[in-house]
Amino acid sequence: MPSATSIHLSARGLNQTYDLGSAHLKVLQGVDLDVAKGEVLFLRGPSGAGKSTLLYILAGLERPREGTVSFEEHQLFSLGSNKQADLRNRRMGFVFQSYFLLPELTALENVLLPAMLGKNREGEEKARALLDRVGLSGRLDHLPSQLSGGEQQRVAIARALVNDPSILFADEPTGNLDAKTGAGIIELLLSLARQDGRTFVAVTHDPALASLGDRQLYLKEGKLAEE
Questions:
Q1: Which residues pair with 156 in a beta bridge?
Q2: CA distance 100 to 102
Q3: Distance CA 7, CA 71 (A)
Q4: Nearest Cα to Cα of residue 95 among 167, 181, 45, 47
Q5: Phi and psi torsions of 14, nearest 5°
Q6: pTM (2 decimals)?
Q7: Which of 67, 76, 71, 62 is nearest to 14 (CA)?
Q8: DSSP line for the chain
Q9: Percentage of residues in the chain with pLDDT exceeding 90?
């Protein structure tokens, strides 16, 4: 458990329920969580347990039915939508199972998008450097359709890091990749996070992958337990 002075992200009393007609599906039930600065944390659990829901709430991408999330000095759900979006763009990075690259843009242009939104004047220089770090310095002008799945995910990783976020979220980042390519992507993500001292919170169903983190938590029936 992180000490109070090292906490980077904190959640208290998270409850999430989805209304399905007359039925109510309880996904999260009173979840409390603290994540330390620089910690590599994996969230595990069976399919449908609410792992992605929890990740999206921690990142402010989804609002819980009840509960609070504190990130750095901010109460996420007390911020207006514009301030919350600006905070996510500046301080958070996201890598998803689907790459979400714009098909009409080159690898370099896709990586540049968050920097342009954040008016980062050093964006292009940073984007080129990141594409080099993920091994794609020779693919800057290629469209997503000209890249393999693993290469597209490397572009997505570079895009997630272009604004130098303090925390990186990943939702099943290897889900669309074969085992060998997926292992390379995880190795890359962990290396980039640890080299830069970045907090990393990821969802996975793979216990071998989760064992590479500093800590793993298991979500079952809406509640968290430490592995």
A1: none
A2: 6
A3: 9
A4: 167
A5: -75, 120
A6: 0.92
A7: 67
A8: ---GGGEEEEEEEEEEEEEETTEEEEEEEEEEEEEETT-EEEEE-STTSSHHHHHHHHTTSS--SEEEEEETTEEGGGS-HHHHHHHHHHHEEEE-SS----TTS-HHHHHHHHHHHTT-TTHHHHHHHHHHHTT-TT-TT--GGGS-HHHHHHHHHHHHHTT--SEEEEESTTTTS-HHHHHHHHHHHHHHHHHTT-EEEEE-S-HHHHTTSSEEEEEETTEEEE-
A9: 76
Tokens of 212: 């590479």
* Residues 71-130 pLDDT 10s: 998 999 999 999 999 999 999 999 999 999 999 999 999 999 998 876 777 789 999 999
Give the pLDDT score at 206.
Answer: 85
- Report the distance separating Cα 187 and Cα 157, nearest Å: 12
What's the pLDDT tens digit per position in 132-153?
Answer: 999 999 999 999 999 999 999 9
CA 164, chain centre distance (Å)? 13
Which whole number is the average pLDDT over 8-25?
90
Which amino acid does the sequence have at 90?
R
The token duo for 136 is 């794609």
pLDDT of residue 227: 63
Banded model confidence at residue 156, pLDDT cuts 50, 70, 90? very high
Which structure tokens are listed for 8?
Answer: 């980077």
CATH number at residue 153: 3.40.50.300
Q: What total number of domains does the chain contain? A: 1
**Taking residues 18-38, what's their average pLDDT?**
91
